[in-house]
Amino acid sequence: MLDYILLEDDHIIVINKPPGIAVQPDKTGDTAIIDQISKAKGFPLHLVHRLDRPASGVMVFAKTSFALRALNKQFQERTVSKVYWAVIKNNPISPKGSLSHYLRKNEKANRSVAYDKPLHHTQKAELDYEVLNHSDNYQLLEILLKTGRHHQIRAQLSAIECPIKGDVKYGFRRGNKDRSIHLHSRKLVFTHPESEERVTVEAKAPEDVVWKALSQFIA
């Protein structure tokens, strides 16, 4: 039994990806979650979108080529709503606002750099954020992605000096012991490829002390 599956029918499987597991095979050779599910189910799944290995949260996979085409179109046309949670240490400039940058991906380093102005080989990146809760040491942000760029949230929060807890690649001082980062895909809203009804799936944050302290009373 794969306890991270949140929703399944003849067309899709939606999961709550645990932190630290690769979505698809990479150079480490570790078993990817798409292969893990495919093996357990006895048929191959189709990758629709990605989520960084150290992050967690909602992902949708397609069971059929028909579902894959329908979901790919939605992601390309930006009709999918993607809401994330991120834990940061520093206070953002405002408790609620928008961020707009231009990102350039460094393939060799597998990271993106955010600039205030458009430069050669940059792509515009936009998001809205709001502080949902705070403790003595951390802030919990809710983030609505308007674009879907490589490491977008990580790079944009780093650019305003609010790196995500555990994300040493983007400026946080110390990594988490399990090599995760406190970035969680909280909610995904999309149109079902067969019924054409809007589907909303939410995923609980990982079971650790910081996530529990900041999110346990949030609906």
The oligomerization state is: single chain
Low-confidence stretches: none
CATH homology superfamily: Pseudouridine synthase
Q: What general outline do the C-alpha atoms trace?
A: globular
What is the number of beta strands?
11
Written description of the protein model:
- With 219 residues, the chain is an alpha+beta fold.
- It has a single domain (5-215), classed as Pseudouridine synthase (2-Layer Sandwich).
- 16% of the residues lie in helices and 35% in strands.
- It is built from four helices and eleven strands.
- The protein has helices at 33-41, 65-76, 152-159, 209-215, and strands spanning 5-8, 12-17, 46-47, 56-62, 81-88, 96-106, 111-115, 123-134, 139-145, 183-191, 198-202.
- The longest helix is centred in the N-terminal third of the chain and has 12 residues, at 65-76.
- The radius of gyration is 17 Å and the shape is globular.
Write the layout of secondary structure elements.
Blueprint: E1 5-8, E2 12-17, H1 33-41, E3 46-47, E4 56-62, H2 65-76, E5 81-88, E6 96-106, E7 111-115, E8 123-134, E9 139-145, H3 152-159, E10 183-191, E11 198-202, H4 209-215
Parallel strand pairs: 4-10
Antiparallel strand pairs: 1-2, 2-4, 3-4, 5-9, 5-10, 6-7, 6-8, 8-9, 10-11
Features:
single chain, 11 strands, eleven-stranded mixed sheet, 4 helices, Pseudouridine synthase, alpha+beta, 219 residues
Report a brief summary of the structure.
The protein is of the alpha+beta class and 219 residues long.
